[in-house]
Amino acid sequence: MKYAAVKKSLIGIAALVFAVSAYAQEKIKGEEKAILTDAPDVPPPITRKHATKVIVDLETKEVKMRLADGVDYTFWTFGGKVPGKFIRIREGDQVEFHLHNHPSSKLPHNIDLHAVTGQGGGAEGSFTAPGHSSTFNFKALNPGLYVYHCATAPVGMHIANGMYGLILVEPKEGMPKVDKEFYVMQSEFYTKGKYGAPGLQPFSMTKAVEEKADYVVFNGNVGALVGDNAIKAKVGEKVRMFVGNGGPNLVSSFHVIGEIFDRVYIEGGKLVNENVQTTLVPAGGSAIVEFKLDTAGTFILVDHSIFRAFNKGALGMLKVEGEHVKEIYSGKTEDGIYQPEGGVIQEVGESAPKIIPAKNIQESIARGKRIYESSCFACHQTNGQGLPGAFPPLAKSDFLNKNKSKSISAVVHGMDGKVTVNGKEYDSIMPAQVLTDDEISNVLNYVYSAWGNSKKTVTPDEVKAIRASGRVK
Predict the structure, then answer these.
(1) Separation CA 96–CA 136 (nearest Å)
(2) For residue 219, which of 180, 251, 195, 187 has the smallest C-alpha distance?
(3) Between the CA of residue 452 and those of 152, 384, 455, 456, what are the distances in Å?
(4) Which residues of the chain form CATH 1.10.760.10?
(5) By the 8 A CB rule, do 95 and 138 touch?
């Protein structure tokens, strides 16, 4: 037994020596500057068959930007956006990394790349004061998808303020060909005010330590992948998503509603799982998901810790154009009456924080569109067409256009029982919406402005009055 154990150990050492010498023997040919991209875009696949010297230039900068409608935040960034730039290199490459800290920065920053073998993942060699640059080198030894982040003390604060991104080390043999690639990164923000509280919000260390996130988002802000910002593809295409989690605290349960991942590279490494519904992405970790688009529709990206999606911002859209393949998904084919006993109508009394009022009707409509696309479309559908027998249409709705007060009341106080819309009877429940007076005004202004409706306007004061007076019969 002793001999067998020693033999096994020697074989392992020999394999390690062989691997190290293989890396050492691979010649570096030429030099190139890395293409860096902002989310959701990804640099093009690497087609060269040799290792090269890759020069990466990345700037840290502190920037005030939108976190949500009416809410600003001073983000600390790699490259001026959150998440930071996507970096793509090849296994065996020799990387010359230049980190520049913009002169306007108030603090020093550095970078810890999880793809780096060496002290601090590069943090030790990249501590950079405002107005200075640092350079260090590393060899890309291990293929995979890796997170990078700032590691300057206090580390959690630098990450919580937006300092993270992804670096892909492609294997020497390359990756299987797909039609579209996207960069999606989840993270959370901890603000002094509650979700939606207006103005420039400061970071809350107390909430961060207690892991009580106000916002959980994809790609740096609420709505970054919704509506006009949705990622797009076509039926028949194969899609690959590089999914990261900057944290700093929460684990993501990444899911695409209406899709199944054909392949998941677990934690961004070599091990592949197939036919996966939801995959865990740890804080400071990643996953690569691939799937073929078999039919058209709007597929919703969520953290399936589901209140984060619908109440804190972790929601995005993949809009797939092309044929609706009825054999794969028919949509509703039959509708009948079902009247079991019981059922409880739940009143929702909690109000969301007040936001800064819209300056004009155009701004109100734009804000309302974002609310509709994140909260209302699941029932009433993207173009307000509703669901036959379940949810009435909002498009060209005689109910909406006849009585504005009832429409406001339905959103504020909820609605149950039978209602006739455009000549068809519906008997469903609409719960009271957890929205402020301003938000209800905005979303109704959007609905009234769209889909052939009457272009009525709704003010926050009208909403406030109906909230105080009770449900309109």
Answers:
(1) 6
(2) 187
(3) 54, 10, 8, 11
(4) 361-469
(5) yes
Report d(CA 149, CA 61) in Å as an integer: 13
Q: Helix or strand or coil: residue 151?
A: coil
pLDDT at 434: 80
CB of 243 closer than 8 Å to CB of 289:
yes
Compute φ and ψ for 314, nearest 5 degrees.
-80, 70
State the pLDDT at residue 169. Answer: 98
- Does 15 have pLDDT greater than 70? no
User: 336-381: per-residue pLDDT in tens?
Assistant: 655 565 443 344 444 445 557 888 999 999 998 988 887 787 778 7
| 268 within 8 A of 279, measured Cβ to Cβ | no
Hey, CA dihedral for 291, 295, 299, 305, is it positive or negative? negative
Stretch (H or E) spanning 29: strand 28-33
Q: Is the pLDDT of residue 438 over 50?
A: yes
- CATH 2.60.40.420 range(s) for the chain read 26-170, 180-321
Q: What is the overall mean pLDDT for the chain?
A: 90
CATH class (in words) of the domain with range 180-321:
mainly beta
Burial status of residue 370 (CB atoms within 10 A of its CB: 0-12, 13-18, 19 or more) = buried
- Block residue for tokens 């603090």: 107
Residue-wise pLDDT for 246-300, tens only, equals 999 999 999 999 999 999 999 999 999 999 999 999 999 999 999 999 999 999 9
Which one, of 125, 148, 147, lies nearest residue 135 by Cα? 125
Instruction: Check residue 346 and give its pLDDT.
Output: 40
Residue 10 confidence (pLDDT): 52
182 forms bridges with which residues in the sheet? 241
For domain 361-469, give the CATH number.
Answer: 1.10.760.10
Other CB atoms within a 10 A radius of the CB of residue 263 amount to 16
Residue 245 pLDDT level (bands cut at 50, 70, 90): very high
* Tokens standing for residue 418: 């039978």
Please name the residues in contact with 3: beta carbons below 8 A apart, sequence gap of 6 or more.
none
User: At the top level of CATH, which class does the domain 26-170 belong to?
Assistant: mainly beta
- Cα separation, 209 vs 157, whole angstroms: 10
